[in-house]
Amino acid sequence: MGATLNHYTVELTEEQARELERWCREHGFEMREVPHARFGAFGEDVSVVCYRSGKAVVQGRGTRDFVQFVLEPEILKEARLGYELELEPELKLARVGIDESGKGDLFGPLCVAAVYVNESVVRSWQGSGIRDSKRVGSDAAVRELARQVRSTPGCVWEVVVIGNAAYNRCWRAMGNVNRLLAWGHARALENLLARGDRLNPFPVRVISDQFAADPRVVARALMERGRTLELVQRHRAESDPAVAAASLLAREAFLDRLARLSQRWGVRLPRGAGAEAREALRQLVQKHGAGVCVEVTKLHFRTVSEVLSELRLPMPDPGGAGPGRSGGFGGEGGDGGWGLFGRAGGGRAD
């Protein structure tokens, strides 16, 4: 997106320097001593050095994302680099961004959001802090930014939720999470494009992260309306504001449904797939039996088979079938009242 930015310099106040150092420490940057510097912070693709003079230098291939999604909204509280509409004409194009949430989480559904933007929408987001949900520090902030997305005049969105029972049936039929994810992208896009009278002007392209090694996985999944758009898949697609907005709506939908599952089954279900999730699964199975795994987990995660093996319980059968030719799922419900897949919502702010 636009020209490469590998170096950025800005003057910080004392308070801003402290905030930047705190942010880097909290987000796992390696802190090192640098001559004449207050601190040096080194991440995977970006480094930040804050000098005692107040000058901060950001370097590396991740410079643009760090400035746009961290430095401006979290530290400076204003957009200086911003979306640079005048320098980046492609940001003026009407387009759809797609992103998902829940793929790497043991508990909860797979949520896919598609968001339509045009030039006026992107301009209105300049300096708003709307950015990739993975770069947002709290669930409350995700919800607030998602609210801003939904309330933006001209912005149109769709969210598709694939509940756990449906996910597990589909996984068994497909045997590949990327094929299932591609179907979710295609379904969300098709639902959005069906509301063409609200898309002004009509989008010329759709942008998503390249999550599959073979880009044809998504291209083949596109449905009738989706095939009329230019499909752009790229790594770090969330640097585009349309994809960043989609990531926020997908994350919000995932958080809402994870909370509902926790309430329904009486066990707090954490995000992720680490030790905390493993212990929650053990409690859940001891309380409700192995069958609950179909309703709340993604069965192909190794943690499920390991916990069931430790408890000497068999792997439950997800039953059912995968997506049909019409783009829906065969079989009956079992997703905690949400059906096989559902629209978490869609709309336009006028």
UniProtKB/TrEMBL annotation:
<keyword id="KW-0479">Metal-binding</keyword>
<dbReference type="InterPro" id="IPR012337">
    <property type="entry name" value="RNaseH-like_sf"/>
</dbReference>
<protein>
    <recommendedName>
        <fullName>Ribonuclease</fullName>
        <ecNumber>3.1.26.4</ecNumber>
    </recommendedName>
</protein>
<dbReference type="GO" id="GO:0006298">
    <property type="term" value="P:mismatch repair"/>
</dbReference>
<dbReference type="GO" id="GO:0003723">
    <property type="term" value="F:RNA binding"/>
</dbReference>
<dbReference type="GO" id="GO:0005737">
    <property type="term" value="C:cytoplasm"/>
</dbReference>
<dbReference type="InterPro" id="IPR001352">
    <property type="entry name" value="RNase_HII/HIII"/>
</dbReference>
<feature type="binding site">
    <location>
        <position position="99"/>
    </location>
    <ligand>
        <name>a divalent metal cation</name>
    </ligand>
</feature>
<keyword id="KW-0460">Magnesium</keyword>
<feature type="binding site">
    <location>
        <position position="209"/>
    </location>
    <ligand>
        <name>a divalent metal cation</name>
    </ligand>
</feature>
<comment type="function">
    <text>Endonuclease that specifically degrades the RNA of RNA-DNA hybrids.</text>
</comment>
<keyword id="KW-0255">Endonuclease</keyword>
<dbReference type="InterPro" id="IPR012295">
    <property type="entry name" value="TBP_dom_sf"/>
</dbReference>
<feature type="domain" description="RNase H type-2">
    <location>
        <begin position="93"/>
        <end position="313"/>
    </location>
</feature>
<keyword id="KW-0540">Nuclease</keyword>
<dbReference type="Pfam" id="PF01351">
    <property type="entry name" value="RNase_HII"/>
</dbReference>
<dbReference type="InterPro" id="IPR036397">
    <property type="entry name" value="RNaseH_sf"/>
</dbReference>
<dbReference type="GO" id="GO:0046872">
    <property type="term" value="F:metal ion binding"/>
</dbReference>
<keyword id="KW-0378">Hydrolase</keyword>
<keyword id="KW-0963">Cytoplasm</keyword>
<feature type="region of interest" description="Disordered">
    <location>
        <begin position="312"/>
        <end position="350"/>
    </location>
</feature>
<feature type="compositionally biased region" description="Gly residues">
    <location>
        <begin position="319"/>
        <end position="350"/>
    </location>
</feature>
<feature type="binding site">
    <location>
        <position position="100"/>
    </location>
    <ligand>
        <name>a divalent metal cation</name>
    </ligand>
</feature>
<dbReference type="GO" id="GO:0043137">
    <property type="term" value="P:DNA replication, removal of RNA primer"/>
</dbReference>
<comment type="similarity">
    <text>Belongs to the RNase HII family. RnhC subfamily.</text>
</comment>
<dbReference type="GO" id="GO:0032299">
    <property type="term" value="C:ribonuclease H2 complex"/>
</dbReference>
<dbReference type="InterPro" id="IPR024567">
    <property type="entry name" value="RNase_HII/HIII_dom"/>
</dbReference>
<dbReference type="GO" id="GO:0004523">
    <property type="term" value="F:RNA-DNA hybrid ribonuclease activity"/>
</dbReference>
<dbReference type="InterPro" id="IPR004641">
    <property type="entry name" value="RNase_HIII"/>
</dbReference>
